[in-house]
Amino acid sequence: MKYTHLVLFDIDGTLVHCGPTPKRVFKQGLIDTFGTAGPIDGWIFDGKTDPMIVRELMAEAGVSCTDELVKKALDIYAQGIKRELPGEANKKIYPGVINLLEGLAKQPVLLGLLTGNIQKGARAKLGSLDLWRYFSFGAFADDSSVRKELADIAVQRAYEMTGQQFSGKQIVIIGDTEHDIRCGRHLGAKAIGVGTARSTAKELLAHGADHAFDDLSDHERVLRAILE
To answer: Could you list the residue ranges forming a coiled coil in this record (predicted)?
Structure first.
């Protein structure tokens, strides 16, 4: 199949909200590994990769943090979220997401994930809401802790899967933070902002989004913006 676009979705705040469980089990992973979670209760996770969050919190706590310890903490987190997220009563899919994904599935586009989650965390979150099945691949925090590098990895992975090189506005990145908007700028990618979390659509436009929506409920309009 010849694809017209590579469409890459963020997860948290864009597709789903998973309630307090992810942060709680993340905190437990830090405590079990380092003896402290640092100032996690007031920490903003938005737009950051999981390893970056671990390192930031431990730096604030004045605790030494090696690659091996980061991996240990995230392994504990991955086990916890897989075990506990299915019972989270406050998890939800944002408005319009399913209709948009169903609409994209009928188009000649390649759907992937571009997320700061480690892969096991991403799968637990989307799998608990039956959304994992829509995505054939992704770039995850296991691949790099640097968000900008994840965009390059996603494009390379898409090429390896399809033999097709995506460039410029063929690449569409959809997310809810300024980090999502900026991470594909060096590729000339189209950025679509979703104001379902901390940032408003207006703020995401100010950060350089090509389009921004309050949410994805007007899925046909969003689909047109992706495919234009």
So the answer is: none
Tokens of 10: 């963020």
User: Strand, helix or coil at 89?
Assistant: coil
pTM of the predicted model, to two decimals? 0.95
Mean pLDDT of the chain: 96
Would you state the torsion angle of the CA atoms of residues 169, 164, 149, 93, taken in this order, to the nearest 10 degrees?
Answer: 70
In angstroms, what is the C-alpha Rg of the chain?
Answer: 17
What residues does 92 pair with on adjacent strands? 17
| Cα 156 versus chain centre, distance | 18
Residue type, 89: A
Q: Please tell me the distance from the alpha carbon of residue 80 to that of residue 21, in angstroms, as a whole number.
A: 9
Q: Are 49 and 145 in contact (CB under 8 A)?
A: yes
Contacting residues for 88 by C-beta, under 8 A, at least 6 apart: 18, 19, 20, 21, 128
CB-count exposure of residue 93 (10 Å: 0-12, 13-18, 19+): middle
Domains, the chain, ordered by start: 5-18+92-227 (3.40.50.1000), 21-87 (1.10.150)
Asked whether the beta carbons of 124 and 78 are under 8 A apart, the reply is yes
